């Protein structure tokens, strides 16, 4: 338990936020044009 917030694992939210940022970054780095495996898109 975190004594500051009283929540069991507040860092889990940070991990989710980091995952969202990474996914957004991957979309910018790898635009749909480069995805040759999915020509439908």
Number of strands: 0
What is the CA-CA span between the terminal residues?
45 Å
What general outline do the C-alpha atoms trace?
Answer: rod-shaped
Structural class computed from helices and strand pairing: mainly alpha
What proportion of the residues is helical, as a percent range? 40-55%
Q: In percent terms, what proportion of residues is strand?
A: under 5%
Output the radius of gyration: 17 Å
Q: What is the mean pLDDT?
A: 71
Question: Please, how many helices?
Answer: 1
**Secondary-structure element series:** H
User: What ranges have pLDDT less than 50 throughout 5 or more consecutive residues?
Assistant: none
Characterize the biggest β-sheet. none
How would you summarize what this structure contains?
By secondary structure, the protein is mostly helical. The protein has one helix and no strands.
Question: How would the blueprint of this fold be written?
Answer:
Layout: H1 11-29
Task: Please characterize this protein's 3D structure.
- It contains 1 helix and no strands.
- The protein is mainly α and 41 residues long.
- It is rod-shaped.
- The mean pLDDT is 71.
Descriptive terms for the model:
mainly alpha, 41 residues, 46% helix, 1 helix
């Amino acid at each position: 338990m975190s004594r500051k917030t009283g929540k069991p694992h507040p860092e889990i939210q940070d991990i989710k936020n980091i995952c969202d940022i990474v996914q957004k970054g991957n979309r910018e780095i790898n635009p749909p044009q480069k995805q040759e495996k999915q020509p439908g898109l």
